[in-house]
Automatic annotation (TrEMBL):
Biased amino acid composition, Polar residues: 7-21
Region called Disordered, residue ranges: 1-22, 286-306
Top-rank taxon: Eukaryota
Name this polypeptide is given: Uncharacterized protein
């Protein structure tokens, strides 16, 4: 929490606690003291780690400890054992303590503070009175035993986990506090569509591993450097991250073009130094890299190239990124032995996303033929999702077969997804044309431009809808009436 947790916390009749940053001498002495006290409290053989700080820090906001524990810890009891003055628990797995800076134990039980958000029917307010005595902030987090090693890796060296996540994101991977994930491209595409698609992240992400050594091996990072030598300087940390085989100038550049990401960098020194200083100096060594001035998001002065030239260069960059992503996804599936899981999830995801796209593409057609809008149009679209079967075989000419289903399908069973085809990849801002839909290729997570979706045999689908929409709607109304009668 950076040392400021108690500045936004309150306890009735108590001052706001002063927890200024600590000098290295105070910090390391206190960390040694409280490591020993924690070990004396915890059961034998409990995994405990004090997280490694970012290199080259001249002062410290708090002490961070991580405990492997599969059940809840009584943090109040723990705080009193440690001799804490105050305790703040934002959630059942985390607590923040204020402890005497000299390492002594408080003579009184720890005072329970609460965050100043809405708590119950009223808002707490931060006390205007600030404690005269200064304290040290101590953060304790409990994690499941099976995730302890990964959490320790992910949270060490300040923003190291965040930097790794930043590097791999646009290549289809996510680094979180639970491990390395493979993110399916269709999930990213769904989030860039101009209308909402009800797809949850877990429907398009596969956990590859939470074994740090295995993840480092896949990323092309040397585990022995991390475990044996560690990093005494930011240069050492950056040089190690620079060995990551997923480090691509195309991917980094695209992510940095997102204004929110640039703002994030500016607020975090480890981030900003890596992207504004270290990486531009090393860019010529990266795949498709080129030198970039500090603070540049593109690495290319726009006044030296025409708009057309910039667009062509951007298109080439996205094409390279898309090809690299496909290659790395295949590598990951093989390396982590996730073929069956990937195929099963991918099939379900594609059907889910395309069913939602089909519903959107059908709306203007159904509105045209029915004259309906708003809720009445939504009812017809729902009826098509439930009562229209789509087959790609059985017609003499091999065309789609559309039929009315007497027995309703669930959303998961809907066959509307069969109506959708990928027409190609369009440049950002290009229209999908009649019966088409274009995703926003500029959105974060993109890599290959905007995907263009269309209806197969749109003219024939329109004629069928014109002839059958009333019958299909009637079946849906009967279904809904049956549900209502069953509730009565």
């Amino acid at each position: 929490m950076g040392g400021g947790a108690f500045s936004q916390a309150s306890a009735e009749g108590q001052p706001t606690l002063s927890t200024p940053r600590m000098s290295p001498d105070v910090y390391f002495k206190l960390k040694e003291t409280y490591t020993a006290r924690l070990r004396s409290y915890l059961p034998p053989n409990t995994h405990l780690a004090s997280l490694t700080e970012a290199p080259e820090k001249t002062d410290y906001g708090d002490m961070d400890f991580m405990i492997a524990h599969d059940d809840r810890i009584n943090f109040t009891d723990l705080a009193n054992h440690l001799g804490a003055v105050a305790i703040l628990c934002p959630d059942p797995q985390t607590c923040t303590l204020a402890v005497p800076k000299d390492g002594s134990r408080s003579a009184n039980p720890a005072v329970v503070y609460k965050q100043v958000h809405v708590t119950g029917p009223r808002k707490l307010k931060v006390s205007a009175e600030v404690s005269e005595e200064e304290y040290a902030q101590m953060d304790i987090e409990t994690v499941p035993t099976q995730l302890f090693e990964w959490h320790t890796f992910y949270a060490s060296y300040g923003d190291m986990g965040g930097l790794l996540g930043y590097i791999v994101h646009n290549l289809g991977f996510t680094v979180s506090d639970r491990g390395l994930w493979l993110r399916m491209e269709e999930l990213d595409d769904a989030k860039r569509l101009p209308y909402p698609v009800n797809v949850a992240d877990q429907d398009g992400r596969i956990l590859l591993s939470h074994d740090p050594a295995q993840v480092m091996q896949f990323l092309g990072l040397r585990p022995e450097v991390y475990y044996e030598a560690g990093f005494q300087t930011l240069e050492g940390l950056y040089a190690w991250l620079g060995e990551c085989r997923l480090l691509s100038w195309d991917a980094i550049k695209l992510k940095r073009e997102n204004s929110s990401e640039r703002n994030r960098e500016q607020k975090r020194t480890v981030f900003s130094r890596f992207f504004n200083e270290w990486l531009p100096a090393q860019a010529h060594l990266l795949p498709n890299g080129h030198p970039a001035p500090p603070g540049s998001a593109t690495g290319s002065p726009p006044d030296k190239a025409t708009t057309e030239g910039l667009a062509l260069r951007a298109a080439a960059s996205r094409a390279r990124l898309a090809a690299k992503r496909a290659e790395l996804v295949a590598d990951a599936i093989h390396f982590f032995a996730k073929q069956h899981e990937f195929e099963t999830m991918h099939t379900a995801l594609v059907r889910n996303v395309r069913s939602a796209i089909a519903a959107q593409l059908l709306k203007p057609i159904l509105a045209l033929h029915s004259g309906k809008t708003n809720k009445n149009l939504t009812e017809i679209v729902r009826a098509f999702r439930r009562h229209v079967g789509i087959g790609e075989q059985g017609q003499p000419d091999g065309r789609l077969r559309l039929e009315i289903l007497e027995r309703a399908r669930t959303d998961a069973q809907s066959e509307l997804w069969r109506l959708v085809e990928v027409d190609g990849v369009a440049a950002a801002g290009e229209s999908g044309g009649q019966g088409g839909c274009v995703g926003d290729g500029e959105a974060d997570g993109g890599g290959g431009g905007a995907v263009v979706y269309g209806l197969k045999e749109a003219g024939r689908v329109s004629e069928w809808a014109k002839e059958h929409w009333e019958e299909v709607r009637g079946l849906e109304r009967l279904r809904m009436k049956g549900l209502a009668d069953g509730r009565d």
